[in-house]
Amino acid sequence: MMHYVKTLTIAGSDSGGGAGIQADIKTMSALGCYASSVITAVTAQNTKQVFCVQNIEAAVVEAQLHAVLTDLRPDAIKIGMVGCTENIKTIAQVLAEYSDIPLVIDPVMISTSGHKLMEKEAIDTFCQQLLPMATLLTPNIPEAEVLARCAIETIFDIDCAAIRILELGCKALIIKGGHIKGGTMADRLYFTDNNKPLIFETETIDSLNTHGTGCTLSSAITAFLARGLRVEEAVAMAKNYVSLAIKEGSNVRIGSGHGAVNHFFCPEKLIKR
What we know:
three-stranded antiparallel sheet, six-stranded mixed sheet, 8 helices, alpha/beta
């Protein structure tokens, strides 16, 4: 009997459709994976801002997790916005029983418009209980500053922050360099057993439609891990996908603020194996 390549995203809902659970499902589907989901929060947002956030009760999050994991059993899992301490504890407890499944964690803390998406008191719980479970952690510069508890202004700062974050227990870490200005963007991939990072450079693309690029990247990495690629291969393929998705959506108007990338510029059929 053949099966689809399956992924699971655990994240918050974006009513604007550009980030969060919506971007995750679009990305995973476009890359040939059957995507299931566990919703941790509901947000009211559009291309301009986040208006409000409502976390889902931990018992409901747990029920969603058990429903998916005991039946569909994904080939890789992505975690995005978790919101509150109770949800973090619940997710960590349930996923401890599935430690053989690759886990990509995108530590969503602040929206592009500046709205807090993780409660301040939840950060310590996140670092202690959930972060050490990650096959790969994918923070941007502001998120890495919070996790490493240091300011980042230079490449040297990024390397120092990476050492601090890896000490928290994740197996690998990619720090996204989109918040450092320049003609190219460099993401740096670190492993616990190698002090020298792998560097992925991409040309900066002029586009207003960049909302949800972090969610899209982590979801693409998850899809490629589910398809059987190694971490460094999955990152390289995901980076290429995101760059093309930004480029192909750069000349389209979506709302009056920062729109989404074009997730479906070249969609694949669902992969069976």
